Each structure stands twice: as C-alpha cells, then as structure tokens.
Amino acid sequence: MWQASYSYSEEVYGSTNNAAQLGLNWVMSNILPDQAGLEINGLVYQYTAVKDPETDMIVYVQNEYADGNGYIFRNADDWSGLPGNTINKAFVLPNLSADLWGPGSIEVNGEGSVVDPSVIYTYKYDTCFDPQSDPSCPGYEEPIVVPEIPIYDPLQDELVLEQLEEKARLDEQEEEEDRKRRQRENAVQNALETLLGDGSNPGLIDPVAEALALALTARILPTSYYSDIEGGEYLEKIVLNGGVVQDNRKARRSSLAQQFLHQQMVDSQYEKSQQETK
Description:
Layout: E1 11-15, E2 25-26, E3 39-50, E4 57-65, E5 71-78, E6 86-97, E7 101-110, E8 113-126, H1 158-197, H2 207-220, H3 249-277
Antiparallel strand pairs: 1-8, 2-7, 3-6, 3-8, 4-5, 4-7
C-alpha cells in the first residue's frame, strides 16, 4: 500500500492492500481507510485461470451497490474454449464515493478455478473534507465548550434531610394534637347536650362528663347565664293622664281617605277587565 504525503488541506491519493488475499469475497469497510469524503477512482485486478481449453468458464470481478440494488462495478472475462492463463486489468473510475461500494467478490461460472487473485482499489480524499477534523482546515470553528454544571440533589444534603425529618415530626405532632382536640370537643359537646338538656336529673349525667361540662361552661358561658332572677310579680307601672286615650281624628280621616282611594282603584281595574272580556 502506498500513500502520498500531504500538508494543509491537500488531496491525498492512495491504494488498498489486496482485497482478495483472504478469499474470493470481501467487505469494503475492511479494505478502505476510515476517512471522511473518501472516493474510489480506480480498480486493478489480476488472477490466474485454471481450466481445460475445451470447457466453458466465465469469471466476474464485481462489487455490489451498498444498498444491494445491482452492481456498482462488474467486469466479465470469458475463458470459454481457451486455455488457462494469467490476466491483469486496470480500470479508471469517476471518483465514486466509498459510501456507495458494497461487498466485493470474484465469481466463477463454468468449469475451472481462479488462483492467486489480487484486487486493489485506488482512492483519494481531501484532508479537510471535514473542516473540524483539524484546526488548520479552512472553515474550522472553535468548538463551544459547555461548562459542566454539577447536579445538586437536595436529598443528598444532610441539612435538608434534617429539616425534612423535623417538618415530618412536627406535622405528625400537629395531627395528633388535632385528633386529641377533636376528641375533647366531641366529649364536651356530648356532655353539654346532656347537661343542658336535663340538668334536673343527675342520673342522666355521668359524673366525669358533668365535671368536664361544668368546667367548660364556667369558662365559655357568660356570667349572666348563672345570675339568679329575683322572683315575684312584675306589675305594670304605666299611668295615663286623664285615664282616657283620645282618638286621633286627623289620623282617622287620613286612613279613611286612603281606604276610599284604594277602593276606587280596585273598582276601576275591575271595570276595565270586564270591558276587555266583552
């Protein structure tokens, strides 16, 4: 294999090793260099045909398209009626992208065989086909360095964990206090209902509930609730001067006038409705 030296943004020309040195079938990715923008511009093959001059034999040297749709290169040597011999051929190709080249092979149809095969590809590529491959290439752009930002996990922070545990403890304590408060309120409420419902019957009031209810009422009911009202009869103390309540004649005349006006309005509505009915 040979390869020309090169410098800044220069086209490089080279050739492969013998693709058929390990057999009559080969894979191009194992033959060509891994270089962006590589193009195949030639092919040289050689082999020796071994056969009887009277027999028919055709030898195909070929490469399939990478997508499997036909052949990108195929050449046939017809040895029918000829004796065996060594053949050497070279082909110039129109700079075909290496991405197009699929599996290569030497195929024999007929009676005979092929020995000492050699298939060599020539190629070229631009050292700066990918500008980012070398800072000296035209169009090279300095890569943007993204600073690594450490990921903060608050659940790994001992202080945060302590705060979370303390909050959970306080929440649990508050829930327990609320539960006890509701129990106390329900007990007091039941005791109050029993006490205020029939305080005259001590048999209806449990001694513990009674004590609790009395303690609560002493704290939340107004003092006047327990104030005693003096007994006896409360007599009317209003005294009218003269002993007689005089009629208000002016108010009486106004009331009669309003009543008479209301009656006129009712009669007028009635007469109007009777006329509409007729």
